[in-house]
Specification:
flat, single chain, mainly alpha
């Protein structure tokens, strides 16, 4: 069983990090040989939900984790996109694309925060009704 608050928190953290990464991409739009980065979260979440649930036990803190045991362990990761460059200076940042991604991410963040606030509001109602 997963905890909805933890899942929404992880999604919000991924969205926040995506905003930072997009801002960094935009800030380096004119830096030669800079390669844009992105944040993966939705793909990892989808992989978990489709059945990628095999996980290994770690017997030591220095062991590499294998898979995820629960939905709460789905975290974001930053990936660099080295696959292409549309400019002669080796930079692959398109400011228009980044601005569109920033707008999309803002909507995602606002939606997730609204969902989390609504979840807490429902919990508050349940607690207050239980007192009566």
């Amino acid at each position: 069983m997963y905890n909805q608050v933890n899942l929404l928190t992880n999604a919000l953290n991924a969205s926040w990090k995506r905003n930072e990464v997009i801002a960094n991409n935009i800030a380096n739009a004119n830096t030669p040989n800079f390669k844009r980065s992105d944040v993966e979260f939705e793909k990892l979440l989808e992989g978990y939900l489709k059945g990628n649930k095999l996980a290994g036990d770690r017997t030591h803190q220095n062991h590499i984790p294998i898979g995820m045991k629960s939905l709460d362990e789905v975290r974001h990761r930053v990936v660099k996109n080295d696959s292409f460059s549309t400019r002669l200076d080796g930079n692959n940042v398109d400011v228009d694309v980044e601005m569109a991604e920033m707008a999309k991410n803002t909507i995602t963040f606002n939606t997730l925060s609204t969902q989390l606030n609504n979840h807490f509001a429902r919990l508050k109602i349940a607690i207050n009704e239980g007192k009566r």
